[in-house]
Structure formats: C-alpha cells, structure tokens
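re: ur question from earlier - yeah i can do the single chain one, its not a big deal. heres the input i used so u can compare w yours
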Amino acid sequence: ARRILVTILACAVPVAGLRSLEWPVSGGAPVLTFGSNQAGRFYPSMTAGPEGAPVRAVGAGEISFLFDGDRMPSGLPCLLGSFVALSHPDGMVSVYGRLERGSLPRYLRSVSAGDVLGRSGSSGYYTSREASFTLFDRVKRQYLNPQVLLPPVRDDRAPLVRGVFLAAGDRLLPLGETRSVRQGTYEIVADIQDPLTPTDTRPRAPYSVRLVIDGKEVVRYLYDAARADSGRLLFFGSARRDSKDYFLADGRFRLGSFLLARGRTTVVLIVSDYAGNEREAGGVILVE
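and the output i got, formated as tokens:
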C-alpha cells in the first residue's frame, strides 16, 4: 500500500508551493500526529475528525488522483479507503484519505484553499473514523510533518513522560528508582505521549526528543520529515532512524544504545511539543 501511495505522489504533476496551509478539518485538533505509534509503525501522516466533518483542501491545487472505494482495481485493499490527491505549487502533494464513500468531488479538477473534498468517514483498513492527511514533497521525495506548516493548535500542556528506562536484555530498569547498574551497554527507552487534555490517551507523538548524558546531547529526534528508502521509512534528527526499530511492542520509544562507564552518570530526557511546551525527566545512576 505504501508503494502505491509513493508512486501516486511521485507521479503527481506539480503546478507551481504551499505558502500557507489551512486545516483540512475545522477545529485544528489532531487525533494522531506525525510520528505517532500506529500498530507498531511510525505514522507519516496525521488524522483529524470527527466522523462526517467536511474535509477541505489545505491550499490551491489540482486533483491529480481520486479514488472512491475500498479496493484498488487490482483487487488489493486500499488502506487509505476513498482518497483525493492534490498537486500544489513547488511540487507539494497533499493526500486526504479515509473519506466517506460517495462524498468525493468527481466534478472538480482545480480547487481553491478551503474547497470541500469529501467527508471524514469509515473507509479504509483502519477502524478510526477520522480523515487522514499526508503531505509529500515530490521534489525532495520525503513526507513532511503537516503540523509544522499548519496554524498552531492552542496547547498549554507539556508532553507526558511516564518513564525513562535502561533496557538490559528483557529487563527495564526505571531511572529514578534504580540506584546502580554494572558497567556496560544499555538501551535507553522512554514512555512518551503528548496529550491535549487531562483525559487524552491518544498515542500522539511530540515534536522533538533530546537525550542528554552527562551534559552532552547524544541524540535528537525531530519530527519534521521522513523518507521512504528501499522499503524502510527513515525519520530525521541528529541521525536518520529506521522507524521499524523505534517502537517496542507496547509503544515505548527506543532512543538508542549507549556505553555507560564507571562513575556517576546523569541521564536527562527533554521532550517538546509543537507549542514549545517542554518536559524533562531522567535521573542519576551509579555505574559500577
């Protein structure tokens, strides 16, 4: 399914850039963000709802592909369900998926920002009822994080860090509770969410994750873009990371493996969201 989508995006005809975007669904509250954990995979899109809401073009462009159904002509299921792909200036392509069948504008060719392209519905592989939105740079051949370019969402809640752990084999040793460990190489794992409300349990990803060991930043993951390469989805930061290796089965983040030498070691995790809210977590541990 990803190959089909990349082929459509790559073949879309550029018509001239998206200088400014509008939210595809009014309200501006994403249900899943770029980089969220979706069934153990790095999600290179975003979703917004609710079901039945009008889905609008984020900018002016031309409809380069339109599909209304659940299965492709080959008979394979279409994970996006009914969807519309728009070509925008400077080679940008926006894709609106999981639309209600029969709501797509078959009579349109050129659209303006704000034109209705359909309604969020229940088509596609996933059971959620929110529309999906993908932004692709055809020139650089990479997925872009839509939320970086969309008007900001009001958010005064810092990301939630439920724990930072040292992983040794099958054991997870929580920082702040573990007093000492033996010298060696440990994987650092974090449990992170970015809730918008106190009762929000959606697995939204933050915007940036930084890991500092003994005052030195050893990794920075920035959720701004991702690239499909040889069957892998790589996202960016201080180093490209294969998305398949990023999540544990329970959704926690794998931040990398590091050699801890003897002495006192301080590990600090710094997580930021799109509004600039920041949370720090970690601890000091004695390495013997």
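The chain is about 5% helix and 45% strand. not sure if urs matches, ping me
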